[in-house]
Design brief:
The chain is an alpha+beta fold. Helices cover 58% and strands 8% of the residues. The chain has a four-stranded antiparallel beta sheet, with helices on one face.
Length: 236
């Protein structure tokens, strides 16, 4: 069973709530909305796993018609008394808290939720990064699917959501020009990369250290590194 205090603290932290009262309202509203939107088996599993304090908000049978997908976060926002976009973030914080304590329940919920909410249940870190984009000018964190898609355009790179690497073999006299070109590109982009030399060349790594993940900015940096390698490899 998911611990109430732990879930409350998670929602308060991840939802950046003004106080515990807002976190409590988010929990209660999300529990009821999820119960109304899920099938009977998932609803029962939700009742079993959520804290006893929330069970009164999860009826055994839904007392109102199921909500349309786009209405879930709006209903949560209405019950909390906040803007719709805030409702998405708070309901997302509840789902990410469920994921943290019970991934199986989170996956069952995700399979019945619209994409904007399902990603909070399946990939809370990725959803958090995407939610920040455009609000804090933070580059968007990529989930595994996003990384795999990006790697289709970066065939010489390997890695996962925590970092991407590319190894380059080249003569020693080309190493300094290559690194100079890569550092110039990094300054222009306003983003960095890591590297270490080997006996036959250099290994580049891109990741956003501040959040410990690969972001859209890292993909741009990898593309700039590729361009530098192509230029120096051609004798530029």
């Amino acid at each position: 069973m998911i611990a109430y205090q732990e879930l409350m603290e998670h929602v308060a932290r991840e939802g950046n709530t003004s106080d515990n009262e807002e976190a409590r309202r988010a929990l209660e509203a999300s529990a009821e909305v999820l119960a109304r939107h899920t099938d009977p088996d998932t609803r029962e599993y939700l009742r079993e796993q959520l804290p006893a304090t929330l069970r009164d908000h999860i009826p055994e049978q839904p007392g109102a018609p199921a909500l349309e997908s786009g209405e879930l976060s709006q209903e949560v926002a209405r019950r909390i008394g906040c803007p719709p976009e805030r409702g998405v973030r708070l309901m997302g914080a509840v789902l990410s808290g469920i994921h943290r304590s019970d991934p199986r329940l989170a996956e069952e919920l995700a399979s019945q939720l619209p994409d904007e909410l399902a990603e909070w249940a399946r990939d809370p870190q990725g959803a958090r990064g995407r939610a920040d984009t455009g609000q804090t000018d933070t580059p968007s964190r990529l989930d595994q699917t996003g990384v795999e898609r990006a790697l289709e355009g970066l065939p010489d790179w390997r890695g996962d959501t925590e970092g991407l690497t590319r190894s380059v073999d080249l003569p020693v006299d080309r190493l300094t020009p290559l690194l100079n070109q890569a550092h110039k590109a990094a300054r222009e982009l306003g983003h960095g990369f890591e590297h270490h030399t080997t006996g036959t060349g250099v290994v580049f790594t891109v990741r956003t250290a501040s959040i410990g993940a690969v972001t859209t900015r890292d993909i741009e940096m990898a593309e700039r590194v590729d361009a530098a390698i192509a230029k120096i490899g051609a004798g530029g």
